[in-house]
C-alpha cells in the first residue's frame, strides 16, 4: 500500500513479527532489570512455555 505521489511515498509500512523463537526466555531478575522491554516481550511470548516458572 502506498500513500502519496509515486515518486515520493509518504508512508512505508514494514511490520515486525516476533515469536517465541526470536526472543529469549528472561528468567534472571538482574537481566530483566537491565533490559525491561526485552523482559516484557519475553514474559508475553513465553507465558505458556512449560520451562517458565508460573509461581
- How many strand units? 0
Main sheet specs: none
Q: How are helices and strands ordered from N to C?
A: HH
Low-confidence stretches: none
Using only C-alpha atoms, the radius of gyration works out to 18 Å
Mean pLDDT: 84
Q: N-to-C terminal Cα separation, in Å? A: 45 Å
What features would you describe in this structure?
The protein has 55 residues and is an all-alpha fold. The protein is built from 2 helices and no strands. It is elongated. It starts with 28 loop residues before the first helix and ends in a 10-residue tail after the last helix.
Based on the model shown, name its key terms.
single chain; 55 residues; 0% strand
Topology:
Blueprint: H1 29-34, H2 36-45
How would you concisely characterize the structure shown here?
The chain is built from 2 helices and no strands. It has helices spanning 29-34, 36-45. The protein has 55 residues and is mainly alpha-helical.
Amino acid at each position: 500500500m502506498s500513500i502519496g505521489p509515486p515518486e515520493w511515498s509518504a508512508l512505508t509500512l514494514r511490520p515486525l513479527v516476533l515469536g517465541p523463537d526470536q526472543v529469549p526466555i528472561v528468567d534472571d531478575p538482574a537481566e530483566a532489570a537491565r533490559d525491561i522491554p526485552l523482559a516484557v516481550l519475553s514474559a508475553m511470548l513465553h507465558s505458556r512455555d512449560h520451562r517458565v516458572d508460573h509461581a
